[in-house]
């Protein structure tokens, strides 16, 4: 015996969750570039610099979470653009057909109650 030391597998620390994982993606690798990881990571409350002496690897679970977060971010951005043009062009509450909010109940001006909305 006495060979237990060999069984210890060292992994990589994930920059996002700080867990040690065997499967990680290096942030400055080709794969990370294809997945746009750096761009997505900038949306998070972390500051990342190439030479900041901190882990440059992230685990697969965090990559998936990052994708989800990025999708949500893009959705919110798109939705904000819709709301902005709606506010700019017809603040009187009458949405023309061209407006993405046309025909939708807008809580900011609609007088309908929740009951009426759900019964229709
Ligand atoms: Zn992670
Ligand atoms: Zn509108």
List keywords for this structure.
120 residues; mainly alpha; His-Me finger endonuclease fold; 2 domains; two-stranded antiparallel ribbon; 42% helix; elongated; binds zinc ion
Task: Give a structural overview.
Helices cover 42% and strands 8% of the residues. It has 120 residues and is mainly alpha-helical. It folds into 2 domains: 10-89, His-Me finger endonuclease fold, CATH 3.40.1800.20; 93-120, no CATH class. The radius of gyration is 24 Å and the shape is elongated. The mean pLDDT is 84. The structure holds zinc ion (2 copies). One zinc ion binds next to loops.
Per DSSP E runs of 2 or more residues, the count of β-strands stands at 4
Order of helices and strands: HEEEHHEHH
Residue stretches low in confidence (pLDDT < 50, at least 5 long) are none
Gyration radius, in Å:
24 Å
- Total of helices: 5
CATH architecture of the largest domain: 3-Layer(aba) Sandwich
Short structural summary:
It contains 5 helices and 4 strands; from the N terminus they run αβββααβαα. By secondary structure, it is mainly α. The strands form 2 sheets. The chain has a two-stranded antiparallel ribbon with strand order 1-2. It has a two-stranded antiparallel ribbon with strand order 3-4.
């Amino acid at each position: 015996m006495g060979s237990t030391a060999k069984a210890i597998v060292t992994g990589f620390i994930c920059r996002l969750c700080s867990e040690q994982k065997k499967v990680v993606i290096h942030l400055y690798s080709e794969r990370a570039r294809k997945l746009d990881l750096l761009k997505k990571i900038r949306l998070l409350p972390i500051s990342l610099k190439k030479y900041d002496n901190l882990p440059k690897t992230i685990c697969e679970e965090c990559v998936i979470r990052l994708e989800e977060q990025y999708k949500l971010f893009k959705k919110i951005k798109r939705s904000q653009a819709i709301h902005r043009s709606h506010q700019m062009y017809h603040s009187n509450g009458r949405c023309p057909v061209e407006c993405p909010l046309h025909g939708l109940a807008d809580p900011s001006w609609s007088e309908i109650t929740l009951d009426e909305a759900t019964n229709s």
